[in-house]
Amino acid sequence: MAKFTDDTKRRLDALIARYPTSQAALLPALWVAQEVYGGWLPPEAMQEVADHLGVPASDVAGVATFYTMYNKRPVAHHRIEICQNVACMVNGADELIGYCERKLGIHAGEMTTDGTFSVERVECLGACCHAPALMVGSTYYENATEQTVDKLIAELADMPSESVNPPQSQMPEQGEF
Amino acid sequence: MPVEQTQLLYRHRNVPGINRLETYVAHGGYEQFRKAVAMDPEAIIEEVKVSGLRGRGGAGFPTHIKWNAFPKNRDVEHYFIINADEGEPGTAKDRDLMNALPHLLVEGCLCSMVAVRAAKCYIYIRGEYIEPWKSVQKAINEAYAAGFLGKNVLGSGLDFDIYTHLGAGAYECGEESALMSSLMGERGMPRLKPPAAPLPMISGVWKRPSVVNNVETAATIPAILELGGAKYAEIGVGSPRSRGTKLFSVSGHVNKPGIYEIVLGTPFSEVLDIAGGVRDGHQLKTYIPGGSSMGFAPPTPLDYPFDYEGIPQNTQTLGLGSGGLMIFDETTDVFKVTHRLVDFYHHESCGKCTPCREGLDWLSKIYARIAAGGGREQDIDLIWDICDSIRGKSFCALGEGAIWPVMTSLRLFRHEYLSYIQHGRNTYSEAGQLGA
Fold first, then answer.
1. What does R_g of chain B's alpha carbons equal in angstroms?
2. In what order do the strands lie in the sheet with B210-214?
3. Which of A126, B84, B179, B384 could in theory staple to B95 by disulfide, Cβ–Cβ 3.0 to 4.6 A?
């Protein structure tokens, strides 16, 4: 069932207006769709984007599957994404990932059975000078320790994801002009 | 030259509220844009040429050559594009700059747009950088409200629009032509380059004249206009071809990891000191001078000028790169670090060309087997052979960058590979040995 409201379509039109072609709005449009569809992109979401942008559904699928941050499966409310690249690795990222895994009783890449948390290994977050770093929603936690993780998990456990972090796709409004 | 006296980009880095327009303007912000908008575009390009500015993203290509290739009229739309898809492991400078000094980026874009006769600019920010993205978008909104963006800006008769464009997690999009593909709403795959294809400055995004510049490159333009190209070119203590200052992200085993603005040509040992030196009680084993694609360098010599030309040939690294300096001490398992990088490049290979896609898949499998204790003596030759099949044969620089840490680590730390092959573990890093 279609989930795009008039408001969604207004947002997409504002994005399309930024570019010479509607296809160029595909990446930002997929961010909006991911937000509307609860954090991931089921085939219907891709179809709605394709219909609104006038781009072949196959192109939309091609783009959506190319980029790591478009989720092709449902995701946990709170995704603890820990950088595993070398600057973090030599500063204890693997140990931190292991700690999260044990604490939540899951492996990296999995989510808890209630869908509240997941632990994910991600590539360089660009926080190399404050390693190890992790990201939850749109917020970075740098020089992260086991205590950081304890505190985060305790705080986030009862909160819906939106109240803690704005959805990643939330567009800052382009100024009035 | 003392470091404090040569802060250009980071002069006001720690001024409270410098991310807001009013504070930025109170510290001289947008003065250079006021100057630039009244200047002949050719005169700006000339200043940049005299300054000797080279792209700060990694390749170090002279900025003025790119800009000079633009058509000298406004018959069609020109596009100025900022590469803020910072993803090179070890590099964190653009994130810091966008968070702390978003108006410096906006002003730099505006000055650059005058020079290349562009009315539209897209800032391509990687998907993970939500905070920098908001910071920059807020600055753009403020600049519109203050009349630095919009129609007939400052009565010049020129229109300027800057848009942010959020990526979605693809290292490859930091490659100029892949970034342009991604901006046009396609998969982030690289395209043919000159001479096989027209210059992007002639036919880039949407087949219009376009240029892609790094965040730091654009943010340097106001300083060049303020000082004048000739004065800017006096800054630098090394090669005559490496002028000005550069942001370095120093990470790994140092006492004070962080982002530092350093005069090009400063001796490497001094750069290391600025970051507090190797962490206390430990010794330098190896380092990566400019982002992981540059490869590992030996711990000697250290007194060479740290700039585009200064990195000694014998290090066999590719050079200064993006300024992502990673320091490793004797506890580092270089095989494991390289394995991690191989897996990174394997994951990020876009899949367009066979050498990179298949080669990195094989490398990843071989490293995993060695790490699991199933290594064979002939694996070393096999790794070399695969590197040979990628080197100079991949479609873009990703493949080349992927094998550089592999080849340099094999040259310097072959014994660690052999230790894994013979004992299933790294006896050298366990014992804290610097070399064989």
1. 22
2. B161-166, B120-125, B79-84, B210-214
3. A126
CATH 2.30.30 at A6-66, yes or no: no
B396: containing domain: 334-430
d(CA B50, nearest CA chain A) in Å: 32
Q: Which residues of B touch A139 (CB under 8 A)?
A: 131
Residues of A in contact with B185 (CB under 8 A): 19, 21, 23-27, 55, 63
Higher pLDDT, A49 or B320: A49
Architecture label for domain A78-161: 3-Layer(aba) Sandwich (3.40)
What is the β-pairing status of strands A134-136 and A117-122?
unpaired
- CA distances for A85 relative to A131, B87, B278, angstroms: 10, 11, 20
Q: Are residues B171 and B157 in the same domain?
A: yes
The answer to whether B317 contacts chain A (CB < 8 Å) is no
B317 pLDDT band, cuts 50/70/90, is: confident
Convert the pLDDT of each residue in A97-137 to its tens digit: 999 999 999 999 999 999 999 999 999 999 999 999 999 98
CATH number at residue B343: 1.20.1440.230
How far apart are the C-alpha atoms of B433 and B303, rounded to whole Å?
23
Give contacts of A89 with chain B, Cβ < 8 Å.
336-337, 340
Three-state SS at B224: helix
Tell me the shortest Cα–Cα distance from A111 to chain B, in angstroms.
20
